[in-house]
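In this supplementary section we document a worked example of the pipeline. Step one takes a protein sequence of length 259 as its only input; no multiple sequence alignment statistics are reported here. Step two produces a three-dimensional model, which step three serialises into structure tokens for compact storage. The input and output of this example are shown verbatim.
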Amino acid sequence: MRQTQMRTWVWGEMLVKAPDSIQTWVPPLDEALQDLRLGTAVEVPATLNRQFKGAPSGLAIELMQMLCDQMEMRYSWVTQSYAALIPALQCHQIDVIVPITLTDRYCCELEFSDVLYPVGTRLVVRVRSRIQPTVRALRGKRVGVLRGTTQEAFALERWRWDGVIVRSYDVHRDVIHAIKVGEIDATLQDTLTTFALLSRPEGRGLAYAGPELDDPILGCSVALGVRKSDLALLEKLNQALARIRTTDAYQALSARYLV
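The serialised model returned by step three reads:
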């Protein structure tokens, strides 16, 4: 008989920066084979959300639940600011980053799994703004980004030296608050996040500016990130990913989020 696995959701402070509050969601408990600590960014639309009763939901949650079920591994979720994820991985506070953009920037720090899904980058502005994602249009403007992301790296490398003011935030909700109250003029984020944002009430009054950006710094897909010493885990994740991609559940998940 298939065993039900314990899944624990942990919101709290670790040795690296994390939210102040601590909440735990524990589904029915049963025996499992191993523990896997999954690190993900705090409250990123489509990737990570909380249902009204505190249970986690979203693309990253459901995809990793499928993978861990396939591997018959017990797991817990640890939420942090995006910038804290790699330090947490290197300090053995988490075992997998879910997800992380595939770029050369991270290659010396961790190992990537096979690609989870494609992702791009777009600029979001207030409705009726004439700002476009070009240096000329953004010179003197304030652009908000999530700290530690490829979007921050791109904005600092490609735009800051030409007069664009780059402001970095630890969590997504602070970026959205900043653009709505006029503290920043635009925000640069991945397309999965921006699509989810603009599809929800909190995205009211915001709109895309221009097309997707194309640059090697930004990357074009995401994967899972593990320590370089955890090659056995990496192989197990890739094997599980290959298996679930053939299932109806995975196809349904893709249709729901990856539009």
